[in-house]
């Protein structure tokens, strides 16, 4: 059983005017496949071919739904992990601030100690130089 191509063509134009691109593309694809499969039969579309494409579309939709479900599960898992991490960080925030404050204090103290050691080294070098001059003058 075959039917006239006129109805899908009219429907195609209506979909184009409404801006419904996905159904429009499906109908256009059916026309293209009809031309390829039945190049000598210009005015008719074979319903069995349409059912084949409908099954292909249904399979693609099922795969898409499965992939979408897996992606949603992955995103849900990531959101849970993010919330848990944010909670853990929130619980540790006061400790983190305390550690940063202590680190700054220790760095300041160690910088002061380094400056003192540098100054004492300069003083020691100056004393060694003075002693070596005195020895040279004595000789």
Tell me, briefly, the overall form. Answer: rod-shaped
Number of helices: 3
The order of strands across the largest sheet is 1-2
Count all strands and give the number: 2
Distance between the termini: 128 Å
Overall mean pLDDT stands at 79
Helix/strand structural class: mainly alpha
Strand content: under 5%
Largest sheet properties:
2 strands, antiparallel
Listing every helix as H and every strand as E from the N terminus to the C terminus, the arrangement reads: EHHEH
Give the radius of gyration. 41 Å
Low-confidence stretches at least 5 residues in length (pLDDT < 50)?
Answer: none
Q: Portion of residues in helices?
A: over 70%
Overview of this structure, please?
α1 (6-18) packs antiparallel against α2. The protein has a two-stranded antiparallel sheet with strand order 1-2. It is rod-shaped. The chain has 3 helices and 2 strands. The protein is an all-alpha fold. Residues 3-61 form the DUF7745 domain. It holds the Pfam family DUF7745. Residues 61-88 form a coiled coil.
